[in-house]
Amino acid sequence: MSPGAIITLAGRSGRRLKGFIVRKEAKQHGTGRDVEGPVQPGDSAVIVEDVVTTGGSSLAAIDKAAAFGLAIRGVLAIIDRLDLDTRAAVETGEALVDLARGDAGEAVLAGEVVTSAALLREDAPVAGVLVGERSRQAARTALDLQEAPDVVVPGASAPMRRWLVQGVRASARAIQAPFTGRAVELPLLEQAFVRTLRESTVQLVTITGEPGIGKTRLVAEFRTLLENRQPVLWRQGRCLPYGDGITYWALGEVVKAQAGILESDDPQQAAEKLEAAATAVLEDPTHRDWIVASLAPLVGAVSTSPVGADERAETSFTGWRRFLEAIAVHDPLVLVFEDLQWADPALLDFLDRLADSGSPVPMLVVCTARPELYDMRPGWGGGKRNSTAIALSPLSEEETGRLLAALLARAVLPGVVHDVLLERSGGNPLYAEEFARMLVDRGILERHGRRGVIAPGAEIPVPESIHAVIAARNPELSRGDLVPSAGGPSPERGVP
Ligand SMILES: Nc1ncnc2c1ncn2[C@@H]1O[C@H](COP(=O)(O)OP(=O)(O)OP(=O)(O)O)[C@@H](O)[C@H]1O
Ligand SMILES: [Mg+2]
Prior knowledge:
4-stranded mixed sheet; 38% helix; binds magnesium ion; 16 helices; flat; Rossmann fold; binds adenosine-5'-triphosphate; 17 strands; Alpha-Beta Plaits; single chain; alpha/beta
């Protein structure tokens, strides 16, 4: 809030507050004074500074006001001015979150990462995003980054490195393993799809498993397989772990994709596209209007009819279902809902209803979720004749070995490292991938032609868990969780 606004608000609420300004440089014309306003020598005053950087201008103002004869009682610094010039910073790490202590329902955050993020934000340029070391590590393959000058942080052992985000990369991860295993699971998906076609039914497949076990990858492989074979309409949405107004986000993504609605479209454009998409699949105009009205809130469109936005969920559910079924009548439809462990119960209710509809259309609904889904909905998918559950188990040792060999471009690891690695990976492909990435990041794994070579005498760290692998990708970031060894893991990690 500017000093002028403070005086105006004080006046409105009936308080007598005299405002004055202290000039940085006295004007050559006019009164030529440093202090301008209805104040007299001998008055008490408070200096208001809207953004304090070094405090230098506050001190200068105090000197000038004191020279004028004002008695300065204090300095009011507004450190968090609402500014239209946005700047942002992203840093990654662990923080302690105290949900109970915060006032007004706000969580209290503590930890090094919070301080680092705040320091980064201070230096971020207007409309720019600055990221720290850990964020760079995590997002390096997805973002184009430009190194920004280091900054010395008092009390820290090393200068803080920073990067400026230049843009988002279209290409995916640099290191991706060839698809390995899943010889049972992929055919299960195929069979469910064949059933939707043969019986013209809705089939529900739920794929569950630990983070990084390969749910998303399995679905992606299934897509490639189907698309190589026949035309299918593939629509996909994901549930988000946070945010407001995201109850039906995943479904919104599906509808937006179907209608070609972009994030940049305004509500009017969204409404027009939605209308066109509905007209394309719903030949019978009798129900079209209310169905479109039910869909409008999902895609941020202005509603074309008074019904819809405030309709009961029941009517909306019916409208959404009718739209999806109408799409499937034209082309076999595969609907994918990712990360159902974060779904709002209302979305789960809708998907449940969709699967139970018994409508005679070829529609395959594929859901992925971490096992927590079953804590939330113990009976998810249960008792339905058209439902299949695929619980992804870890890759076998043999499969993990193959995966590692491919990831390391057949570079040979010392036998003992290899054994520990297999054990610690627990058959999790993400662990194997992150391990390979870590070796590349640290210059331990090099490419000689098409073959990988482990730098001779290199210390090969074998982190305990996926979490530790990600942390260990940068040596400066991880303290003590690495295994120093010329070719073998350290004894203190319990290696035989
Ligand atoms: N069978 C596999 N063969 C080769 N690589 C795989 C396999 N399964 C997964 N991966 C790789 O492992 C990484 C993690 O897999 P994915 O993203 O599918 O995990 P997820 O189970 O969906 O995890 P989350 O719960 O976090 O969404 C990906 O980079 C993926 O390509
Ligand atoms: Mg996933």
